[in-house]
Amino acid sequence: MNSSTQIRLVAGPVGAIDVAIDLPPAGATGIAVIAHPQPLLLAGFSFGGFVQCQVADALARQGSSPRGMVLVAPAVSRFRVAPVSVRTLVIHGEVDDLVPLPAVLDWARPQELPIVVVPGADHGLSRDAFERATRQIAEQFEKYRAAHGG
Predict the structure, then answer these.
(1) CA 130, CA 120: separation in Å to the nearest integer?
(2) Does 36 fall in a domain?
(3) Is residue 110 within 8 Å of residue 128, measured between CB atoms?
(4) Which one of 44, 80, 103, 134 is least enclosed by Cβ atoms within 10 Å?
(5) Which residue range is the domain that position 69 belongs to?
């Protein structure tokens, strides 16, 4: 955590849960999620998106699920990424040559997932593009909080 850390309270199954949203002052280079035993929101970048889809799939097989997911440039053309069964926001660069946008569209379309396309961004997303994507993630947290009284 740092001086710009935003703390939000989200309603949990046994009370409010603190959520820390951290943007490093020197510029973000990735996304990290520390999950609560009752995951509220899973997020991952590239291979991390694949991992979070695997986590959601494993939770579903146990009769549980996260409340939502945010996947940034999910590696759907590199791994067999499980379909998701929860509210999911996908953020992807328009000119990603590592995981092409058409592959992500083909994966997301049958699931009717919303996709935020960052114009001109490649797989790594520039600092500016990453910050725009992070704002989208924060907006998803706010929508969840508003809908669930957190």
Answers:
(1) 12
(2) yes
(3) no
(4) 80
(5) 28-148
Beta strand 68-72 with 15-21: parallel, antiparallel or unpaired?
unpaired
Structure token digits, residue 61:
């097989």
Is residue 80, in this structure, part of any structural domain at all? yes
Domain tally, the chain? 1
Euclidean distance between CA atoms 26 and 149, whole angstroms: 33
The three state secondary structure string of the chain is CCCCCEEEEEEECCEEEEEEECCCCCCCCCCCCCCCCCCCEEEEECHHHHHHHHHHHHHHHCCCCCCEEEEECCCCCCCCCCCCCCCEEEEEECCCCCCCHHHHHHHHHHHCCCEEEECCCCCCCCHHHHHHHHHHHHHHHHHHHHHHCC
Look at residue 19 in the predicted model and tell me its pLDDT: 72
**95 residue type, one letter:** V
What are the CA-CA distances from residue 108 to residues 21, 74, 75, 93, 116 (Å)?
26, 10, 12, 15, 12
Which residues does the chain have with pLDDT short of 70? 1-3, 12-14, 23-25, 27-40, 127, 130, 148-150
Provide the CATH number for the domain around residue 114. Answer: 3.40.50.1820
